Design the sequence.
């Protein structure tokens, strides 16, 4: 993943509602969610949701697919994993640093 792509993805996620939308789509998994389901789940107006989905789509964090009359939005797990990989690529100077029992603890720090 290129630095420019990382910046675009992080900028898209640096807004509370977009972050909530993205997290909801991650939880939904490969099945994704319709805009109506997202509106209901997040208690947000359709026009506002549409704007934020567009921003997430432009950052390649979300994809959309037409299923009959419905649009299905899905988190781009490959892109998300690429972003996480970029952010942690040089963690602990390339050494394995996470204790499996405590994922937030760096054992070499």
Sequence:
């Amino acid at each position: 993943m290129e630095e420019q792509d990382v910046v675009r993805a992080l900028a898209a996620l640096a807004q509370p509602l977009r972050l909530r939308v993205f997290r909801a789509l991650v939880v939904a998994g490969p099945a994704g969610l319709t805009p109506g389901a997202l509106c209901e789940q997040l208690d947000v107006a359709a026009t506002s949701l549409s704007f934020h989905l567009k921003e997430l789509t432009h950052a390649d964090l979300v994809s959309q697919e037409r299923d009959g009359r419905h649009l299905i939005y899905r988190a781009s797990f490959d892109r998300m994993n690429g972003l996480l990989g970029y952010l942690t690529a040089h963690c602990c100077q390339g050494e394995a640093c996470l204790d499996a029992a405590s994922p937030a603890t760096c054992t070499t720090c």
